[in-house]
Amino acid sequence: MTFPANRRNLIICLLVVVLAGGCVQRRMTLRSSPPGAAVYVDDYQIGTTPVSHDFVYYGTRNIRMVKDGYETLTVRQPFPAPWYEYFPLDFVSENLIPWEIRDERVVDLALAPAAAVPAAEVVARAEQVRLAAGAQPAVAPVQAAPIQAVPAPVGPPALQPLPAPVQPGPGPYFPGPPPGMPVPAQPNQPAQGIPSLGLP
């Protein structure tokens, strides 16, 4: 089966358009005031502001921004689909248009400075968390008694009796040096024999 030249050229053009069809490039840019906040989109960290990130599906995203010294900000940000992404136009915009369509979304959020929390409130929150975790009941704080000065005694210090001296008991009995060791000479005793035990 043969086609006329102009029909064949039309079919080739349609195939080229379908194979090299267009697409929609979706991109969100998140900025904060002040910049430098860590950004989480649907609980996935994507960087620090300002940051741009591609996305595939339209809908509502959970965006959380965290920065030291500022309150953590959490918002539900809708990204509605544009008119050319509704059925049946989405097939044409995604497949048949021979150029790229860019859909850029910009979200600007302002962070509030963190408020100073009083120490009593921090302690109360800690007690609530401890009780919720099933710990022991809270113990009332102990108030320290004021320190009172003790008057110095007038006159000489009282003398305490000394403990009784410990009387030495009989020492252990040593029968003599080990075998093969020479016996030292003692006064008024012969050099050989058994050493004197101090008996008369």
Notable characteristics:
18% helix; Immunoglobulin-like; single chain; 200 residues; 7 strands; alpha+beta; 4-stranded antiparallel β-sheet; 3-stranded mixed β-sheet
Layout of helices and strands:
Blueprint: H1 5-19, E1 23-33, E2 38-41, E3 44-48, E4 51-54, E5 59-66, E6 73-79, H2 89-96, E7 100-110, H3 119-132
Give an overview in words.
The structure is a single chain. With 200 residues, the protein is α+β, with helices and mostly antiparallel strands. It has a domain at 23-110: Immunoglobulin-like (Sandwich), CATH 2.60.40. Helix content is 18%, strand content 25%. It contains three helices and seven strands. The protein has helices at residues 5-19, 89-96, 119-132; strands spanning 23-33, 38-41, 44-48, 51-54, 59-66, 73-79, 100-110. A four-stranded antiparallel sheet has the order 3-2-5-6, with no helix packed on it. A three-stranded mixed sheet has the order 4-1-7. The N and C termini lie far apart (147 Å). The model has no long low-confidence stretch (mean pLDDT 75).
